[in-house]
Amino acid sequence: MTKQASCDIGLIGLAVMGENLALNIASRGYSIAVYNRTTSVTDAFTADRGKQPNVVGCRTLEDLVAALKAPRKVMMMVKAGPAVDQLIATLTPLLSKGDVIIDGGNTLPSDTDRRTREVEASGLLYIGTGVSGGEEGALKGPSLMPGGSKAAWPLIQPIFQAIAAKVGPKGDIPCCDWVGPRGAGNYVKMVHNGIEYGDMQLICEAYWLLKQAAGLSNDQLAKVFDTWNRGELDSYLIEITRDIFTARDPGTNDYVVDKILDKAGAKGTGKWMSQLALDMGVPSTLVTEAVYARCLSAMKDQRTRASRVLVGPDMHNRGDTHLFIEQVRQALYASKIASYAQGFVQLAAAAKENEWQLDYRSIAMLWRGGCIIRAQFLERIAEAYDAEPNLENLMLAPYFQKALADSQSAWRHVIASAATIGVPVPGFMAALAYYDGYRHERLPANLLQAQRDYFGAHTYERTDKPGTFHTEWLDLRRPVG
To answer: Per-domain residue ranges for the chain?
Structure first.
């Protein structure tokens, strides 16, 4: 039997993330009612991991709602898409004015925008929150990025900030704060995931250069990444990469990483960020290259056949190995700066388009702990926006200007070497191309505009006078030679 109106929050969906969030909430002293569509899942959870006074199992949605204190707060941890709309439609008649529905899934921001308006129209409040940190983060402290109905924030703030990861000198600053209206929270989470795509691709390219070009063993790679994790590249992804290189298969004693098929998967948030960047005309090239790299990896059978007939260099770097390792580190750091710069530029473009007032310093701090891209580097980003809240591009901040200048020689050398010896580094190349394109006052788009006007009368602007112009190119052409 459920306790009547005794619980602080309800949670629907007891897959891995839902279970761990429920346990996290209960561990912070809040009582939680839990429900799963498959009743046996609820029963198994409350009989095992969730067998504690603060966790109340519910067999129906009606029981879940009845178990909650007013104003009721119900968090959905279900698969994004139609299932969320169906659940909202079922929940809405059971709730009362001022109650809060929370979606904790990786949801398309436009869906959250629409749902916020629809739920508010019914007298309820709605939150779409990014939740980052994976299984461990959900249990021990994730990064939370809530957006939606501003009136709901004071109602969920104590719980969310209690369960979030903590950072700061005293470890008391929660990686959770209000992001903005409607789909802003989910947009920030989507950009987080897109940056994650870029980060992972860049790390993989650094690994492949060191393994294939420099010939490092897995033990040597682990030591290199351990050293990197003690400096500017200190981050969760560098840390776990170090650990991966040390893991051996219990059955064969071979390194696990060498037994994994080179065929990467994806869940869609990186693709969303790339698509939305294209819609707004924002050059988020790192996430796009990272998505394409995963697509190319998935063509395993074709690549295997191609490897037997297409020729190229032997991928060996014949220079000083220790110097090359340092050059790769610098190239990775510079590329990472360009990647994060693109992410924040896209956030700024989305904020302008959607009329959100985003706090970029706060967003950097939300990612400082709990989430997958957590890194010391984010402190520098927060400092940059603290000094200049309207910063156009992170690469223009003094710290990052200097870091890019200091790394530039190594960055270019690594990319040139990779091209010469045949190691694919699309992420590194895209990052440098973005930097070079951004730093040039003039680009060859003048010729592109001339071409467009020639074949399609698309018009162009001039450098010497205002207005829009069209040229009858056939009338002006002259013989060649």
So the answer is: 9-182, 189-439, 445-476
Instruction: Read off the DSSP letter of residue 458.
Output: -
For every residue of 44-62, DSSP letters joined together read HHHHTTT-STTEEE-SSHH
pLDDT of residue 365: 93
Q: If we measure between CA atoms, which residue out of 341, 381, 387, 376 comes closest to residue 191?
A: 341
Question: What CATH architecture is 445-476?
Answer: Up-down Bundle (1.20)
Q: Please say whether the structural domain 9-182 has been given the CATH code 3.40.50.720.
A: yes
- Quote the DSSP letter at residue 392: S
Give the separation between CA 290 and CA 8, rounded to whole angstroms: 41
- 346: nearest Cα among 290, 294, 399, 278: 278
Q: Parallel, antiparallel, or unpaired for β 55-57 and 32-35?
A: parallel
What integer pLDDT is reported at residue 257 of this predicted model?
Answer: 96
Greatest extent of the chain over all pairs of C-alpha atoms, in Å: 92
Residue 196 is among the residues annotated as catalytic for this protein: yes
Of the candidates 73, 189, 211, 336, the residue annotated as catalytic is 189
Distances (CA, A) of 362 to 175, 323, 352: 9, 37, 17
Q: Which of 19, 51, 97, 196 is catalytic?
A: 196
Q: Which of 51, 59, 63 is nearest to 5 (CA)?
A: 63
**Is the pTM value of this prediction over 0.70?**
yes
Q: How far is CA 37 from CA 43, 46, 78, 116, 210, in A?
A: 11, 14, 10, 24, 48
Three-class DSSP category at 436: helix
CA distance 90 to 87: 5
CATH architecture type of domain 189-439: Orthogonal Bundle (1.10)
Three-class DSSP category at 125:
strand
The yes-or-no answer on residue 189 being catalytic is yes
Q: What residues pair up with 33 in beta bridges, in sequence order? A: 10, 56
The two structure tokens encoding residue 324: 């090359």
Angstrom distance (rounded) from CA 262 to CA 333: 24
DSSP 8-state symbol, 253: -
Low pLDDT (below 50) residues in the chain = 1-2
